[in-house]
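User: quick one, fold this
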Amino acid sequence: MSQHCGYVVKIEELHPHSNADRLQIATIFSQSIIVGLNTKIGDIGIFFPTDLQLSEEYCRENDLVRRRDESGAPAGGYLDPDKRNIRAMKLRGERSEGLFMPLDSVAYTGETKFSVGDAIDILNGHEICRKYIPRGRNKNPNSGKAGNKSRKTSVPLAPLFAEHVDTEQLVYNLNDFKAGDQIEITLKMHGTSGRTGYLPKLKGYKRSFLDKVLRRPGTPIYDWGYVTGTRRVVLNDFEEGGYYGSNAFREPHAKFFEGKLWKGEEIYGEIVGFTDSGTPIMGEVSNKKTQDKEFVKKYGPTTVFSYGCEPPNSKFYVYRMTMVNEDGEVVEYTPDFMRYRCAQMGVETVPVLWRGYIPDPNENGFYVSPDGKQEFTSPGEWVQYIAEQYYDGPDPIGLNHIREGVVVRIVNRPKFCAYKFKNWYFKCVEGILKNDAIAPDIEESQEILDEES
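Assistant:
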């Protein structure tokens, strides 16, 4: 099951819309969703979060796509027929962070059995939704060329070079938290992923006489070496290729770790700022499109996720490190040991905003906030409350732009266990970037290029 999915939910909270008599506001996963007056308390339906793309079939079956009649007048639907994406927006002054649809909206699939909490992306072979990745405005005119991604071989170039772990959304995973868990909240930085490891790397092949006769490549030979890449792709070099036409801005960050990593170490981080050509890595958006005067007043006419960098510079911030042996067994570094190693190497890590432990429930079964003013019925709700104190406002590094949000990590788990929590304004800016077909994460477009080339 993909994490980019809809969720079966029960409406438990409704409020009047402040500026529309025919609309009201539902609270789903602590988010505001604008719905019609026909939605009632107790209704069970499907919630589609932001950053999803609904399938053509689903939109057609539910008349969700914009269309016009013979005279050219609007005749139903509101989603763009090509994009069909869900994004955060304001509707007559009120926020909406998703779409709520009745259960019978998927009746055409033949599926009838649902339970609250079910995740939905494909039903009986019918795709309902997927992650929205804009395909427009590719900055690489040579996207069809193989460029600097990993060359095709019959054996892996670096079999122990692990990909980035996709972090899921905090609000959909509150049940994963337990009393006594050690929690660390760090700044979520809006950059492109980078990873480098000192690992066994393919150096060539040993060919026997029989291999030569049968024209076989032979036995692969591996030796310790440095390997680098994006979230999904192993890079051979930093020349032509990729979303921007060149990955040259990645090269100094990868080279920095040569001679510093121990055998088996792999380091993961975010590259923020600008490419070598001075282009913002994560795009630029007009803040006026947020339709929020206070936001424009606070952050200016445009948002550029510079993180204090001046063009054409970029920075690398580490958020995770691992150690793997030659058998492929991975040991996750604790955040403290990661920071110790990074201090030794002289590289920055993502800022820590809060650290602590989830308390045991009190005598009444409630989890009390650190200030003693709030009580919660579950550890997950307690964690969300703490995260809400840090996930919004100006970015502490790039003070002239909004922060993306935070990452909540459960430190005491043997494997990397972390959840992202984005704030409303970032979702709004991200939605504008994607709606304008400007990829806010160049790796999303890179993945498309890899599939199409």
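User: anything notable?
Assistant: The first helix runs from residue 56 to 61.
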